[in-house]
Structure formats: structure tokens, C-alpha cells
């Protein structure tokens, strides 16, 4: 019996219904338009041969269960963020801060601690609104005190200085209280490094963060046309700026990695609340721009 069976020409022609009728084709074309393959790509990356081989050759010091891919995170699918399952060496080689441009990637390259859940519940807008009101109230009270002092013809400014210092301490307490109320508790250690060293520092910090050995996440500034030759900042985040034990632990980890050395140039810790309110050095309220310095913490003054 011959196996060569003739196939009618209209069965596989462009005019046939092999691809489905018009409604079916339209449905699948619509599915193709809205399909977002990033989640499937992440799952593939976690189970790719390269990733599995790397995990086999470089087992963790202890078995730790990675969080499920089904728990979405703002970093998922973002080019400038490390993806869980992606070998960290590939990520840091692919995105080197010394070559990464702000115009291409945005201002930051980011790595998160995969063993720490995403922080939720922040209401930054409410915090900024109420915090700004407190700063304005302080400015008004400060101006009134200075006017009263000038009218008093007092020979010494010591009484005025004491009152202002007390007001600043009270202002700081109120700002931190409001920050906690609205969940704005995160803070970061900041390292400023020259372009020639930024890749080495970032590679070390990114790897340690991906292993869960530092804070909740880390980020490094990309290069803009106006700052290509300036020191670049790396931020290493902790979950709570008032959790002094954790703040100290992360700093000691940076020391252990050889990135911070006692007796050399200190690094500083700043809370995100101050960043959102644009509280910098030499601000008009006289507030300290940073909460802690590595020098004080390492000397046991925290």
C-alpha cells in the first residue's frame, strides 16, 4: 500500500481554516498583544542550566529557602535590578556602575536581599506633608525668638542658642514619630567612591546583599554627563533607622568585607525621612543631615 496520500490543496492554503476561523485568529492575536512574558522569563532564569550549574558549584554556606517567584516585587523584570535566580556575577558584569549611563538605565542600579520581604505600608506623601508643616512651624518659631532676642538688647546669645537647641531636638523627635506613624523607617549607610574603585566596591556589596549578608537592599548611582568624574554613592539599606543593633550589624559587615576601615574616612547613615524632606548639610533648620557616623558606631558611641 502506498503511504503517499494526496492532500487537497485547499487544506493547507492561506484561505483554509487550518489557523482557525476569523474569530479564533482575532482572539489569539489579541492575547499576543497583551501577553507579558517577564514572569515566565524569570521562572526560566531560576531553572536554567546555567543557574542550576552555578548553584551546584557554589552552594550556600547553609540551606536557605528562596522566596516564591509568585510573590511580586517592584524589582521583578526591571533591567536595572538584579533578578532572583540570576547569577550575581553575570549581573554585576552586565551592569558596571563605571559604564552605566543614567540616560539608559535611570539613576540607580539595585540589588535586593532575597530573604527579606518587601517593605509595605509606607505613606510617603502624608509624611512629607506633615513633616513639611513641622519644618515651617519651626522656621516661624525661630524667627519669633530671634526678633524677641534682638528687642531685648541682651549681651549674650547663649539663652537664644539653648532655646533653639531644645526646639531642634523636639523637632527631630516629632519628625521621627511622624515618620514611624506612616511607615517611613528605612535608612542607609552611604559610601562615596571614585569611578576607578566603584565597580569593585559595588561587586562586593551586591554579592553580599544577594546572599542576605547585608541590609534589605543596596543601590549604586549610575553616571550622568555632569557627574562622570565625581565620586559615586552606594547606599546599603536597613529596615529601621532606629534599630541601632541592625544599623551596627550592617556596618560591621561592611568592615568585615574590607570596605570600611576604622581610623580612615568615615561613612554616614541617613534616614529616608530626611531624604524625602530634603534635609541636607547646612539646612535652614540646623538639623544634622545624618543620624550616625561609622566612627562613632565603631567607637561604641551609638
Automatic annotation (TrEMBL):
It holds the Pfam family Bles03. It comes from the Eukaryota. Gene3D superfamilies: RNA Cap, Translation Initiation Factor Eif4e. Residues 1-25 are annotated as: Disordered. Belongs to the UPF0696 family. This is DUF1917-domain-containing protein. It comes from Talaromyces islandicus.
